[in-house]
Specification:
Largest sheet: 2 strands, antiparallel
Helix content: 55-70%
Number of strands: 2
Distance between the termini: 71 Å
Strand order of the largest sheet: 1-2
Order of helices and strands: EEHHHHH
Shape: elongated
Radius of gyration: 27 Å
């Protein structure tokens, strides 16, 4: 492997001129440098592959999913108390259901895509070749972020209703 001194591109040993910039190439690099460059290139390719995978759980999605699960579980627990009645209980119950469903959806993007492919298997021949469309990715992100806002506001409203009725 040869390394261009002008642009830094790696070239095969049989080349005499850099394909990228036209600079004349020197002698091949030693084996240790070649292995180091190969590892760095593999690491960069892996990072690009991970970053390009829209079904990888991103930290912001994980935070939203955990927040929705926490609000949902807390709402479910509060809904069980006999003091709660009427509007507060209904909102807590809705927050529980929506928080759990959307929280699991946010935390399991690959599982959700698997379910989507299963749904599509009746209409499309080879579902293994399906990739998420831009619309699917955008609508999934919107669902997560708007769902987090909805669950948080419903939980806050139910808490406010419970406090104003002096239940809590």
């Amino acid at each position: 492997m040869k390394l261009c001194k002008k642009c830094g591109a790696t070239q095969s040993d049989d080349r005499t001129v850099c394909v990228d910039c036209g600079e004349i190439l020197g002698a091949p690099v030693d084996k240790a440098t070649e292995e180091k460059l190969s590892r760095e290139a593999s690491a960069r390719i892996s990072k690009l592959d991970r970053d390009g995978d829209f079904l990888t759980l991103k930290p912001i999605d994980a935070a939203c999913g955990i927040a929705m699960l926490v609000c949902g579980i807390a709402s479910g627990v509060l809904c069980l108390f006999p003091k709660f009645a009427g509007e507060a209980r209904v909102v807590f119950l809705m927050t529980f259901l929506i928080g759990i469903v959307l929280g699991i959806t946010a935390l399991t993007p690959k599982f959700c895509w698997l379910l989507e492919k299963l749904r599509m298997s009746a209409r499309v021949e080879n579902t293994d070749d399906l990739i998420p469309s831009a619309w699917y990715i955008v609508s999934r992100k919107l669902c997560i972020y708007l769902g987090t806002a909805l669950v948080a506001s419903m939980f806050t409203y139910a808490l406010y209703a419970a406090i104003s009725l002096r239940i809590i």
